[in-house]
Amino acid sequence: MVGDGRMTHGERNVNWPALLRSWDVQQESFNPTREKRFELMLDVLGASLPARFTALDLGSGPGSLSARLLRRFPAARVVAIDYDPVTQRIGRGALGTFGGRLTWVDAKLGGRGWTDRLPPGKFDAALSTTALHWLTDPNLARMYRDLARRLRRGAVFLNGDHMPWGDDDRGLSRVAGRVYELRHGRAVSRSEWNTWKKWWDEVEKIPALRPYFAERKRRAAHHPRHGDPALSVHVTALRHAGFRDVGVLWQVFSNRVLYARR
Ligand SMILES: C[S@@+](CC[C@H](N)C(=O)[O-])C[C@H]1O[C@@H](n2cnc3c(N)ncnc32)[C@H](O)[C@@H]1O
């Protein structure tokens, strides 16, 4: 996009909805329960909130969760937050503002002052899928503290992600790892990595995305490594930040939906 927000000629020729669909296919290949997990998270929102609410999508990528939420709840609004210029560009291209109900925010979760970039006011829900595992333990704790201040009392928090067992539960981790290997074979994580890499390599060939890739690389240089916080780290940090009723609502091994109420 040029400075005034208009699309360049190259950008107008990109099939953004097809890119979003290819993102979904690639993500689903890592996590065959992905749609079921989205559905369950939205069921929880439906059971907890009135029809009109505003939710945050933390680490939205190109907006897979945001789109599903906005389709399911026609009076809802979403603020989608991510700091990857490439996936956000794809999301903006594929979904736009969803009829004025979707706002895109470029911010780094857990970074200082990230909530200052959000629209003003308090939110009714904060959801995240397959994203918070990128945060280190201290950044996750800071993110939850900041988030708590921007959620109204009674707001719903849901995180659908891989949340491993911690050091106190090594036995569970081992048995889950063995079952996983028996069911899928040792080669699976290598093939997951290949699918992910192949998607990024293909998308990087699109000329209109070049400036976004350049910015992505510039930002990656300042990004801390993958954190992979344990479930117990999430639970403790949420409680310290003032959340209550913190617990796992659904899980298949370490693939879980963690719930909390502000
Ligand atoms: C695997 S994608 C998941 C995207 C989407 N939630 C989904 O389920 O398809 C992880 C996303 O988290 C974002 N992310 C990771 N760490 C982040 C941070 N500290 N701040 C903002 N976004 C972050 C990445 O840029 C990426 O778009």
CATH class placement: Alpha Beta
Cofactors, ions, other ligands: S-adenosylmethionine
Give the name of the CATH superfamily: Vaccinia Virus protein VP39
Number of continuous helical runs:
10
Rg, nearest Å: 18 Å
Which structural class do the helices and strands define?
alpha/beta
Q: Could you state the order of secondary-structure elements as H and E?
A: HHHEHEHEEHEHHHHEE
CATH topology descriptor: Rossmann fold
What is the typical, i.e. mean, pLDDT?
Answer: 93
Into how many domains do the coordinates divide?
A: 1
The coarse silhouette is: globular
Q: Which architecture name does CATH use?
A: 3-Layer(aba) Sandwich
Please, could you describe this protein's structure?
It contains 10 helices and 7 strands. By secondary structure, the chain is of the alpha/beta class. Strand 4, helix 6 and strand 5 form a beta-alpha-beta unit. Helix 2 (16-30) crosses helix 5, helix 2 (16-30) runs antiparallel to helix 8 (188-204) and helix 6 runs parallel beside helix 10. The termini are far apart. The model has no long low-confidence stretch (mean pLDDT 93). Bound molecules: S-adenosylmethionine. Residues 27, 59-61, 64-65, 82-84, 87, 108-110, 129-131, 134-135 line the site of S-adenosylmethionine.
Features:
globular; Rossmann fold; 10 helices; alpha/beta
Condensed summary:
With 262 residues, this protein is α/β, with parallel strands linked by helices. It has one domain: Vaccinia Virus protein VP39 (Rossmann fold, 3-Layer(aba) Sandwich), CATH 3.40.50.150. The protein is 46% helix and 19% strand.
